């Protein structure tokens, strides 16, 4: 039995299958309405951005990681 979900815009039931090209939306219209809500910033991600998410990685650690990967795959890398 196919899974049925509700359209996020109009709450109409949508069958989750290849025959529903706009899933989880019921139509292109509902898909565009939702996109408009995001573009007008009426929707947002619910969790706040943490300062750790914005932290820049240590460049030296990145270089060491890349060098370790290259050393591990040294024979195959340039083939």
UniProtKB/TrEMBL annotation:
GO BP term (any one): regulation of DNA-templated transcription
Binding-site positions, Zn(2+): 7, 10, 26, 30
Family matches, as InterPro entries: DNA_gyrase_inhibitor_YacG, Znf_NHR/GATA
Entry-linked Gene3D superfamilies: Erythroid Transcription Factor GATA-1, subunit A
Top-rank taxon: Bacteria
Cross-referenced SUPFAM superfamilies: Glucocorticoid receptor-like (DNA-binding domain)
Cofactor note as given: Binds 1 zinc ion.
Cofactor annotation: Zn(2+)
Single annotated GO MF: zinc ion binding
Keyword terms: Metal-binding, Zinc
Record's function text: Inhibits all the catalytic activities of DNA gyrase by preventing its interaction with DNA. Acts by binding directly to the C-terminal domain of GyrB, which probably disrupts DNA binding by the gyrase.
Subunit structure: Interacts with GyrB.
Family per record: Belongs to the DNA gyrase inhibitor YacG family.
PANTHER family: DNA GYRASE INHIBITOR YACG
Name the record gives this protein: DNA gyrase inhibitor YacG
